[in-house]
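Today's session is about reading a structure prediction critically. Students often jump straight to the picture, but the first step is always the sequence itself: look for stretches that repeat, for charged clusters, for runs of hydrophobic residues. Only then move on to the predicted structure, which in these notes is written as discrete structure tokens rather than atom positions. Here is the chain we will use throughout the hour.
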Amino acid sequence: MTRNRIWHHRANTFARALMLVIMMPLLWPAGNAFAQTDDSLPVMKQKAEDLVKAEKFTEALPILEEVAAAEPDNAHTQFNLGFALIGQAIATKDAAERKAMRIRARNSFLKAKDLGEKATVLDALIAGLPVDGADTNAFSQNIQANDLMNGAEALFAQGKLDDALLVYQRALDLDPKLYHAALFCGDVYTQKGDFPDAEIWYQKAIAIDPNRETAYRYSATPFMKQQKYDIARDRYVEAYIAEPYNQFSSAGLNQWAQITKTNIAHPRIDVPVQVTMDDKGELKMNIPANMTIGATHGSTAWIVYGGTRIMWRKEKFATEFPAEKEYRHSLSEEAAALRAVISMATSDKKAKSLNPSLAKLKQLDDAGLLESYILLARADEGIGRDYPAYRDKNRDKLRRYVLDYVLTAGGK
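Below is the predicted structure for this chain, in token form.
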């Protein structure tokens, strides 16, 4: 699902976001991909690495800039440079300079991607940084609390963790609903290695807004560091359920899967009928010839998928969504179309068995997880609008779908 969305405040805190998503140090490859001619370069790279791990991004920046000049085509160098530039932007008061640094940071991430960097969050980092480097929304409508947050972020970027912690807590006192203040207190404790206190603060952030993914995802980090992978998995799952269309929540789950060597995937269900909208806003159905000629195992049932959707466009949508003036593809429509296929396929006396796609579809429906599958695996912009309301009432089903199907490479 494609969304044009910039996550609040992340342009100022992406460096921290990545540190808490990936569980391995930000290291350059052990084997250099370039001819080493300067004996001081390995020393500089090690020093920059140490500074990045200590969250001292402003100190790391000049060193990383020298390293990048020496190896401009090293993807991971560009990757780390992007974080250092964001860290410097956080500590910069001049708006024009902050903007320029964010633009440079985004360009570094883009270059890293072009050079082959495979970090799971790279696309999310690029998408989250405005092309023009603009400042993001305020942390709080409380002016004092917002000023404190900006000050605390600058302290954090300089590696002054204890000072930052006190200021975050002062901001939360002024605005008890300030999600990022509680979240970032948890970050500080995580960086200090105080995992019990980190958990307390992450849970405070979750209590403030259980429908944001970030605190769930960040709270997985201490458990990953302690190799408590089952607990970490559950946190990544909750992050994904909270905001499944957020690239960071997906990246967190993918990172857990990589480290635990778990194959994850949605069930593979091939829908052979194509339904498209013409210039007049009407739905058109395209049926492959091989679906109706000599088809077996219930495949002909797919013809009712398109028919059901066309009926929804003409009649049902206006009835089911009277408050919406324009038609959209909805969760109700997609579920009705897929259930019509299941009904026809299972009633076809000529079909001795169902093909894998139909069998899996029926299995999901029998388990009460068809809507969860649609929302998490087949959502477009229209269907995605139905997600918050469904999540509010069916978190258990969404969780069961992810655990039973996604984390088992599509289910058994």
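Discussion point for the tutorial: The chain has 19 helices and two strands.
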